[in-house]
Amino acid sequence: MAVKGLGELDQSYDGSNLRIGILHARWNKEIIQALVEGAKKRLLELGVKPENIIIETVPGSFELPFGSKLFHDKYKKLGKPLDAIIPIGVLIKGSTMHFEYICDSVTHQIMKLNFELNIPIIFGVLTCLTDEQAQARAGLIEGKMHNHGEDWGAAAVEMATKFYN
After folding, report:
1. Residue 140, in any domain of the structure
2. 28-65: per-residue pLDDT in tens?
3. What is the CATH number of the domain that holds 110?
């Protein structure tokens, strides 16, 4: 089965027993909304039950790493642990160094969370030079690119099942 962006999966993955969290920033709403919908669509295609896709928000991409930790801890404490988290954000370069600092910080902290929380934390942050690049990667420009949210949904199911079953 071919998956856009990921190439072929090496086996079929069943997400029917998974609880997946999607935590998204609220900046760049149109792009974020498309990415969240893409991730959710792919999770459903891979068998994740609608009630097991938990979606929450944080103000911006900078808040995604700490928000992901709080998200994880909240559901673990409730006795409903998450099997993977997809933090979704969009960073678009402006005229200052702000973009580089936020991209670097968020990237490193999300990577570290995989080891700290011991569950897959999928890197769902677009780091684009222009609005058009972000729109294309969210599947909002016909024929330009695909929705990367779909890739992130597939990666979450693969990583949450491949090594834990």
Report:
1. yes
2. 999 999 999 999 999 999 999 999 999 999 999 999 99
3. 3.40.50.960
> Whole domain around residue 109: which residue ranges?
39-80+98-159
* Residue 69 covered by a domain: yes
CA distances (Å), 161 to each of 12, 15, 133, 140, in order?
10, 7, 32, 30
pTM of the model: 0.94
Exactly one of 24, 98, 146, 148 is catalytic; name it.
98
146 in catalytic set: no
Q: Is residue 165 in a domain?
A: no
Count each helix (H run) and each strand (E run) in the chain, helices first: 5, 6
Report the candidate in 60, 62, 110 with the shortest Cα–Cα distance to residue 85.
110
Distance separating alpha carbons of residues 138 and 75, to the nearest angstrom: 28
Amino acid letter at 153?
A: G
Domain count, the chain: 1
Distance CA 9, CA 120 (A): 17
Report in angstroms the alpha-carbon separations of 68 from 15, 108, 125: 20, 13, 13
